[in-house]
Amino acid sequence: MEAHFYLPHSESFVKNPKGSAPPFVDLLIKELNDAKEIYISLFLFNNISLYRALKRLAELGTLINIYTIPLNGYDDKKVRAFDGSKSIDVSKRQYAEWIVKDIITENININYYLVPHTNLWSKQKASRGNNSYALHNKSILVRYHNDTYKCISTSSNLAVGDPEKSENLLIIDRNSDIAMFKKYFELLGENSIKLDNYQKFRSKHEDSHLITTPINLRDDYESCYFTAPFIKYNNQGSNHFVQNKIIKFIASSKRRLFICSQHFSDINSYDRNSKSTVKAIMDIARKNPRLEVKIIKQTRESHQAQGGRSTEAEEALIGFPNVEMKFWYPVLHDKFIIVDDEILITTANFTPTQFAWAEKHRMRYHDKEIINTFSDINSFHFVNDKDLTDSYISHFNSLWDRGERISL
Length: 408
Fold this sequence. Notes:
This protein is an alpha+beta fold. The chain has helices at residues 22-31, 48-59, 92-105, 175-190, 195-202, 238-251, 277-287, 308-317, 386-402; strands spanning 2-6, 35-42, 63-68, 78-82, 87-91, 111-114, 118-119, 132-133, 138-144, 149-154, 167-172, 193-194, 215-217, 224-227, 231-233, 236-237, 256-261, 292-297, 323-327, 335-339, 342-346, 358-365, 368-374, 378-383, 404-405. Strand 15 (231-233) and strand 16 (236-237) form a beta hairpin.
């Protein structure tokens, strides 16, 4: 297993044509070069450089499956990307539309799937807009010609139009991760719609009309999990199941507990059946006063339209003498938790909706009520490897040095 990190050289809002972490695109292209099969699950898929590399591989016979959200989920606002020689004013959606058009008109041998499942707790309480798409994770499964596999997860959206941010990328080949990734992509395929069929679907339905029914999996995956509306573990909703794993992980802290997340507000969840990672931190900080607790995030209440819970989380933790908090706006985008010499690497933020789960939940869109499963889609890797953890500690320290202390 190996980890890669990216820190932008400045806090400017300049956009790079390769996205928020340009070196990761080059790294991925290299990793995918000898692939027999590639399965890609990306919240946003509009990276032209990555698409062109995949297109070349498809022409050579590589099987490529891409799963992403519909175009309605992309920002229409034009942004200026600068590649060092010229500037281009294009929106995130326009880049994605160009890729879709190229796949259709050029008859590219790429299987392109849309994941239209949307979440709505209430009109005011969805974390990424009223009609928020569930797919948020950024993960890739690669099968090579020698029948070996690699699993890749990254904090980066890899989206053209995003400013450069701090990011991390994990490449791992444990059997547990490979088994979970295979099952995830199998189920994702069953709960997505291929591009040509999606156009027919949209002629009669809204994205929110796609109903997802979860299936139950036994917890045979040990250290790698996905939350998704189509997954339960041991008869428990995947988001609740994974949150319990994280709370147990936090509770095992003896020397250090370092948390890094773009958003950190998992307190007083909208879901009454969900717990709270913030309260888990409070419990262990109170129980073990010698525990070193550091939390760094990107956003505070003033940076979010509905940021009140960010302040609630800060107020809950600020009184503990062994807890320090910082923020680095607008750059920090990593998502991981370090416990002693172990680490959780995830594509998820720690918010009131991330660990919410509700099967047969009533979601009201305009004048239509849909009964569906509420769940955000993300990946989670629990890793017990000191060398890997040390590399993340070094990255955390680099972020910490750049952060601004939180005081109320």
